[in-house]
Specification:
Elements lengths: L1 H15 L4 H7 L2 E6 L6 E6 L2 E7 L7 H14 L1 H4 L4 E2 L9 H14 L2 H9 L4 H8 L3 H14 L17
Parallel strand pairs: 1-3
Antiparallel strand pairs: 2-3, 2-4
Helix pairs in contact: 1-5, 3-5, 5-8, 7-8
């Protein structure tokens, strides 16, 4: 699964020449909207050939690219679930749901280049210091480390990823 996701992310980065999920969404003609969603961080839906990423306008700024990248993952892999009914992120980054797990891996692969994270790990950074350096949740670093392990890197993932870490 992670190999397929990595290949898809690589294709998108080459095609759109960016890792920025907002630029990529714009180039892919996906509409990004911001609304007050209460406790909901964001969602993706597809209706009448139009694709939308809706992001809560009350979330922390550093989470915006994480949410957008996660929803792009849904666009790439789960459009059939989202046709005329939104994929709502009531438990964003839920590792028990296959679609959520795939979107999490997609987001980590898009936002964190292999070379960047491995350089930090070789510099004796911890998972938490890597997350702080990259300004991403530690769980995203954990997802990325699981991908790196599958690619053959000598790394031990934390496997701490929980479904409710963004609810804090």
């Amino acid at each position: 699964m992670t190999n397929f996701i990595s290949k898809e992310v690589d294709k998108l980065i080459k095609k759109y020449k960016t890792r920025d999920p907002f630029e990529m969404a714009k180039d892919m003609k996906i509409n990004i909207c911001y609304h007050d969603l209460g406790n909901l961080k964001g969602y993706y839906f597809y209706q009448s050939k139009f694709r939308y990423i809706v992001i809560n306008n009350n979330i922390q700024e550093e989470l915006l690219p994480v949410i957008c990248a996660h929803e792009l993952g849904h666009d790439r892999f789960h459009q059939n679930y989202a046709k005329n009914d939104a994929i709502r992120e009531f438990s964003l980054f839920d590792m028990t749901s296959k679609p959520e797990r795939e979107a999490n891996f997609f987001a980590s692969e898009l936002l964190i280049p292999d070379s960047t994270i491995m350089e930090l790990f070789y510099g004796d950074y911890t998972f938490s210091s890597v997350a702080a350096e990259l300004n991403v949740p530690i769980e995203l670093v954990d997802f990325k480390s699981q991908i790196l392990k599958a690619k053959g890197y000598n790394i031990s993932p934390l496997c701490i990823s929980k479904g409710n870490f963004l609810k804090k």
